[in-house]
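Postdoc handover notes: sequence design on the structure in folder B. Input tokens:
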């Protein structure tokens, strides 16, 4: 008996013979249907005209390629008025018309292409015995994915933008919040395209979105019956941006606070006299230091040019066009009042990080031998190399050799300070937490505006996290009554989007799922190595359906 796995599930075939070559198994089949239906007029007939052979590729058997040699009947159409005199009996259980692959092979290729894309999918298919090119896989995904898109109704829609190329071209991603899956992609992030999509889905009752004005206008126009919910993450992000703008404008206060705390620390714990080594001739700067100095000079020249043009009466937009800088950069430089130095990169964590505090303590106790310090922390469980210890104490020696007049503490970046103002301090290092707390307290004493913004920002953050919608009106009134332009601007934007912000403080919906789908989309896009045209990318990220 012929194994049933060799034949299609629908029947109507018989195996005539089997043959094998070096790399291929040939299965010779013949159709057994005695009656066929004309594909044009639908008339049934029994009159056989002739027979011909079709060759179809099928799923491999134990990684050996399988080819079906199919003998198919051709029939005369019984309807003399039909334009089709002769037709071939279809085999829908096996393959489509004119196809060179069976349906089950096409489905397997579609699944491989959907999961892995072209190049990776072709490599896997080759290992499984499916000889196929990357382009064939991608074409199969494009054909199946676009035609099989889901048309089920959607009640809760989440939308956000995503970047084809960051800063240049963006699209829109739409997510079915209740089914937890991507619903559609739009080729741009304009209000017109989103509004048109929503008009085709009048069943939408809730639209969760970020705070972009284009999306708000699209939701009002395309789905006036739906409630709009502002994304809570973007509300908190807007609060952080508010704090950062205020801190950038008070950059001098950051410098004064840093200098004051450094002076207090030097007075409490002066450097021992024995620790100060004799000054040596300065070493020549490294190539990296020269490049860094050159970049700073160019940045300083551009800053001075912006200030000079601003004094001549140029506005921010005109300055942006004339200098080629982003308008946010121009605004940040003008609000700073002085040249904003770039904050140094924070040190990366390494195997030595848990032992730095002990090394610093031993260093203050006159232990200056790298070999000795390495042996001590090695006994405590340090598994790294001695080069890490030597590099660490080398920087401390350089600091001790530096002249007090030449040494200047650089203030932390405004983005770093804003987290401290919101109450996020170090959880592991007690000394660092104490220093960060002192920095915030002194900065708030030095600048009353920073203190005001900190209090209002913390209250708004707590209000969003705890969903206290009843406190929103009081907070807006207090923010509008303040004398800070940044707070007034933020309160004005919240009032313009008042209904959506109020829903964000009461509704369970937000854009967390949407952000996750954007992350998945980015991963798929980057794994396609430049082959992510919109139609193909849309086919790969939408839910996969079996081909008909």
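Designed sequence:
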């Amino acid at each position: 008996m012929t194994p049933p796995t060799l034949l299609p599930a629908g029947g109507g075939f018989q195996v005539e013979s089997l043959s094998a070559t070096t790399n291929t198994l040939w299965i010779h089949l013949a159709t057994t249907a005695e009656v066929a239906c004309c594909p044009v007029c639908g008339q049934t007939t029994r009159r056989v005209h002739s027979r011909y052979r079709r060759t179809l590729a099928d799923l491999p058997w134990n990684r050996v390629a399988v080819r079906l040699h199919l003998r198919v009947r051709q029939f005369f159409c019984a309807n003399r008025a039909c334009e089709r005199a002769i037709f071939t009996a279809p085999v829908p259980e096996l393959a489509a018309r004119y196809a060179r692959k069976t349906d089950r092979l096409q489905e397997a290729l579609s699944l491989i292409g959907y999961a892995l894309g072209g190049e990776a999918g072709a490599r896997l298919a080759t290992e499984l015995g499916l000889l196929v090119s990357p382009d064939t896989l991608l074409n199969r995904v494009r054909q199946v994915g676009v035609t099989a898109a889901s048309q089920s109704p959607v009640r809760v829609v989440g939308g956000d933008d995503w970047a084809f190329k960051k800063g240049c071209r963006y699209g829109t991603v739409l997510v079915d919040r209740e089914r937890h899956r991507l619903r559609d992609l739009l080729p741009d992030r304009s209000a017109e395209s989103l509004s048109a999509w929503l008009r085709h889905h009048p069943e939408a009752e809730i639209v969760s979105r970020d705070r972009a004005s284009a999306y708000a206008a699209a939701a009002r126009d395309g789905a006036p019956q739906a409630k709009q919910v502002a994304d809570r993450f973007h509300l908190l992000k807007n609060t952080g941006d508010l704090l950062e703008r205020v801190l950038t404008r008070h950059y001098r206060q950051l410098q004064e606070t840093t200098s004051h705390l450094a002076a207090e620390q030097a007075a409490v714990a002066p450097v021992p006299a024995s620790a100060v080594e004799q000054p040596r001739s300065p070493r020549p700067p490294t190539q990296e230091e020269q490049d860094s100095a050159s970049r700073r000079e160019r940045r300083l020249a551009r800053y001075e040019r912006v200030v000079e043009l601003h004094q001549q009466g140029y506005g921010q937009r005109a300055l942006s066009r004339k200098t080629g800088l982003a308008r946010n950069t121009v605004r940040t430089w003008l609000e700073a009042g002085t040249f904003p130095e770039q904050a140094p990169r924070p040190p990366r964590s390494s195997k030595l990080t848990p032992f730095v505090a002990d090394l610093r303590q031993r260093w203050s106790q006159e232990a200056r031998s790298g070999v000795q310090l390495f042996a001590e922390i090695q006994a405590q469980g340090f598994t790294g190399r001695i080069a890490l210890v030597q590099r660490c104490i080398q920087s401390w020696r350089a600091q001790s050799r530096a002249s007090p007049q030449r040494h200047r503490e650089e203030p932390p970046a405004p983005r770093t300070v804003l987290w401290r103002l919101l109450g996020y301090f170090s959880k592991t290092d007690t000394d660092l937490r104490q220093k960060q707390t002192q920095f915030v307290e002194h900065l708030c004493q030095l600048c009353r505006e920073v203190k005001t913004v900190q209090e209002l920002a913390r209250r708004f953050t707590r209000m969003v996290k705890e969903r206290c919608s009843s406190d929103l009106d009081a907070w807006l009134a207090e923010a509008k009554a303040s004398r800070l332009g940044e707070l007034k601007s933020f309160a004005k934007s919240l009032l313009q989007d008042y209904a959506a912000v109020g829903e964000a403080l009461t509704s369970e919906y937000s854009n967390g799922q949407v952000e996750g789908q954007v992350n998945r989309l980015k991963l798929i896009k980057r794994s396609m190595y430049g082959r992510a045209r919109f139609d193909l990318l849309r086919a790969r990220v939408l839910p996969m359906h079996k081909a008909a």
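Context for whoever picks this up: Residues 403-407 have pLDDT under 50 and may be disordered. Don't rerun without checking with the PI first.
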